[in-house]
Each structure stands twice: as structure tokens, then as C-alpha cells.
Amino acid sequence: MSAIRLLVLGAVRQHGRAHGYQVRNDLEFWGAHEWSNAKPGSIYHALKQMAKQGLLRAYEIAPSTAGGPPRTEYEVTDEGMAEYFTLLREALTTYDQKMDVLSAGIGFIVDLPRAEAVELLRQRVRVLDEWREGVTEYYTPESGPQQLGHIGEIMHLWIHSADAGKEWTLGLIERIEAGAYTFAGEGDPFVGVLAEGEENPFATGEPDPGDSL
After folding, report:
1. pTM score of the predicted model
2. The CA-based dihedral angle spanning residues 104, 77, 182, 122, taken in that order and rounded to the nearest 10 degrees
3. Which of 8, 23, 121, 150 is in Cβ range 3.0-4.6 Å of 46 for a Cys bridge?
């Protein structure tokens, strides 16, 4: 699973309707260009592809008063909404997702009801435990990873990452169950997107041909 589809669908969904540069601006505001493949070219390509696939609906809007070509605004369709929540749930539960996919899932976790978010995270812990139990039966030498030469460090790294991932996930569950954050159906959510024209202090400032589309 690529993080870009989840990130783009989630960003468009938060605006209701958004043009490509707004989506790029939001993802740079979140630092997604640093921890994922959400570069301008990938963002604009994803918007066009998901519009072709029926996950987004495209609207051509009038040129700005400052001139320039008409921009395209995008809106998530019913099919896109179903895809968004499928990707979100998968990002939160699959133990071997890349870090950018899990990060994207955490970025949108409050779009779920609190109880469901907790259950998905608990499912993640169960899967981590099952994976660890399975591999440590064969890949944990009694005298340490060096018994297998430097190759032993590979599985040692994965086991260590699984343990750290479980610890972090349990901490997040504890914070959510204690009332942290505003989840779906609980009131006004945290605003994680920039308003039209709002300055982005984290923007890369690197122009891209897609910025004007």
C-alpha cells in the first residue's frame, strides 16, 4: 500500500473540495514531503489517477482574478470515501506497513469513532504479538544475534522494531482511552488544514508545473 492515496484522499476530504495546490500545501504543512513519497509530482498524479478511477470528482473552476488558467477542484466521491476508510483501517492494523503508511493512518485516525480506533490499534498489537511469536521460535539464538554472524542483526532489528511499535501503540491506546483528541461524532475536530491563502511556514517553496492546475 502506498501512503500517497490515503494522504491525498484524506486531505481532499478535510476541505470538502480542494485544488491540487491546496492538497500539496496541506501535506507540506504536515511535513509529509519529509516522511513519505508525497512530492508534488506524486500528489498531482494521484489526483488525476483517482479522478479517472472514480474516487475523486473533478470540477473546473474559473480563472483567478489575477489571471492564469482555470484550476481543477476535486471532491471525494462515495467510492472514494469507501476507499479512504478501507485504506485508513488497513494502515492502522497491518504490522508490516512502511512508516509513512502508518504515519498517514495516525494523521487521519480521528476520522473514526473513538471505540473503533482503539479496537484497530488493539488489533495491530495482536498482529505484532503473533508475528513476534512466530519468528522468535526460529530466529532468536540463545547467545544473541551474533551467533548467526552479522546476518543475525537483520531479524534482531525487526524484532526490536516490533517491540518498539507495540510499546508505542499501547501508549497511544492509553492516551485515547483517557480522552485525548476529538474523534468522529464527538464535536468539532482539530483543524489540520490551511485556509485558502493562509501562509504555510513549512512550505518547500519549490515550484512545480502542477501548482497552477
Report:
1. 0.86
2. -50
3. 8
- Give bridge partners of residue 72 from the DSSP assignment: 60
Q: Tell me how many degrees the CA angle 20-75-187 measures, rounded to the nearest 5.
A: 105
C-alpha span between 54 and 167 (Å, rounded): 39
Contact 193, 11 (CB under 8 A): yes
Task: Please report, in tens digits, the pLDDT of each residue of the chain (213 residues total).
Answer: 689 999 999 999 999 999 898 999 999 998 998 888 888 899 999 999 999 999 999 998 766 555 566 789 999 999 999 999 999 999 999 877 688 999 999 999 999 999 999 999 999 999 999 988 888 777 666 667 777 778 778 888 888 888 999 999 999 999 999 999 999 999 987 877 777 777 877 777 777 777 666
Give the orientation angle of helix 20-29 with respect to helix 40-52, to 10 degrees. Answer: 130
CA 118 to the chain's CA centroid: 17
Contact (Cβ atoms closer than 8 angstroms) between residue 122 and residue 173: yes
According to DSSP, the residues that pair with 60 across neighbouring strands are 72
Q: Are β-strands 56-60 and 18-19 bridged in parallel, bridged antiparallel, or unpaired?
A: unpaired
